[in-house]
Amino acid sequence: MMTTLYDVIIKQAKRVDNTLIDIAIQNGRIAAIGAISAPARHEINLGGRCYVSAGWIDSHVHCYPASPIYHDEPDRVGVAGGVTSVVDAGSTGADHIDDFYRLTRVAKTRVFALLNIARTGIVTQDELADMSRIDMALAGEAIARHPDFIIGLKARISSSVVGANGVKPLVRAKMIQRANGDLPLMVHIGNNPPDLGTIAELLTEGDIITHCYNGKPNRILTAAGELRASVRRALKRGVHLDVGHGTASFSFEVARLAIAQGVYPNTISSDIYCRNRIDGPVHSLAAVMSKFLTLGMTSRQVIDCVTLHAATALRLTHKGRLEPGHDADLTLFDFSTEPCVFTDAEGVSVGGQRRFVPLAAVVGGECLLTDEGKLSHVFNL
Ligand code: ZN
Ligand code: ZN
């Protein structure tokens, strides 16, 4: 019998439950998991010195490099921070999606897009104030041209974006969704009008509310700090909550009160772009994930939000799990236990005892060290 020669074997990696595993990779996919003795062209023996999970997926970023407002480089918000897949949330609409696709094919990070229902994308801050920018035919053609790139839709439903149009753009977004295979729809919430209650009532199973712990008056909690009935009903229908931290959309207080009522995020995402990456308060997906450790979530729960949950919500069916047959997208990471301080979008700071430190992103079997990984002891073998 012939012995398999794997492309890569990663030996002695710790899962988040502290069990050690070997991972064999062949043709960009996970070929085997467990204790593996077969040979490989390349072997990385971690000796239990760091953790492994399925590759981290940031389900809300902005990385269209040519965007006049929210631009960044995919690899800066991706592999440099241990993130193997990024999902751009509506930077482009039908007018610029071809250019976005072309520009991101050179990235090491896997880049996906939620198509903005406005054909112009976020060229201005009020892309849905003019209903004529929502062109159903153009959106449908864009989706047909890029079936593996456009994995969903994005609609920004807050006062500065929709102007006097209220929830009319959201009604149109649901029509585009129904006409295009019920793609996942991510809805940004912010200042009202329209009121979150009206928005929530229009959402159906699988739709995603991003900026879910924002501290603005249009938040998911009532003045008394309880979950709004409209949001509770939406969650019951299968609507998902996404963090989408961003410059102005994450409040420790709102997150703390929500989690105390059992209202956990389904996906943890950053809403990162160059400015909030460099100046804060976002910095990185790892930093946003670490904030949820300070809120009492376990590392396993946090990892699930950026792997299994993100892959399921966005129908990335070959990602999110460490299982044979899935894409060989992995994140190698460790924890720092030096006391640290995290700041939310309201300027409130909270002390933390533990922080995720991404060390490497493995994309389709190729190992790319992060900025911190290059300095780490783990790879000086
Ligand atoms: Zn937003
Ligand atoms: Zn955003």
Report what the structure shows:
Strand 16 (355-363) and strand 17 form a beta hairpin. 25% of the residues lie in helices and 26% in strands. The protein has 381 residues and is α/β, with parallel strands linked by helices. It is globular. Helix 6 runs parallel beside helix 7 (229-236). It is built from 13 helices and 17 strands. The protein folds into two domains: 6-53 and 330-374, Urease, subunit C, domain 1; 54-313, Metal-dependent hydrolases (TIM Barrel, Alpha-Beta Barrel), CATH 3.20.20. It has helices at 74-77, 97-104, 136-145, 159-162, 168-179, 196-202, 229-236, 252-260, 274-278, 285-294, 299-306, 308-313, 371-374; strands spanning 6-14, 20-26, 29-34, 40-45, 51-54, 56-61, 83-89, 110-116, 150-157, 185-189, 208-210, 240-241, 330-336, 340-343, 349-352, 355-363, 366-369. The protein binds zinc ion (ZN) (2 copies). The site of one zinc ion (ZN) has 6 residues, from loops.
- Ions, cofactors and other bound molecules: zinc ion
Shape: globular
> Would you report the number of β strands?
17
Strand content: 25-35%
Q: Provide the spatial order of strands within the biggest beta sheet.
A: 6-7-8-9-10-11-12
| Element pattern in H and E | EEEEEEHEHEHEHHEHEHEHHHHHEEEEEH
Low-confidence stretches: none
The number of distinct helices, counting runs of at least 4 residues, comes to: 13
Distance between the termini: 33 Å
Give the biggest sheet: 7 strands, parallel
- CATH superfamily grouping of the largest domain: Metal-dependent hydrolases
Using the CA coordinates, give the radius of gyration. 20 Å
Mean pLDDT: 97
Task: Look at the structure and give the CATH class of the largest domain.
Answer: Alpha Beta
Find the CATH topology of the largest domain.
TIM Barrel
Count up the domains: 2
Secondary-structure-derived class: alpha/beta
CATH architecture of the largest domain: Alpha-Beta Barrel
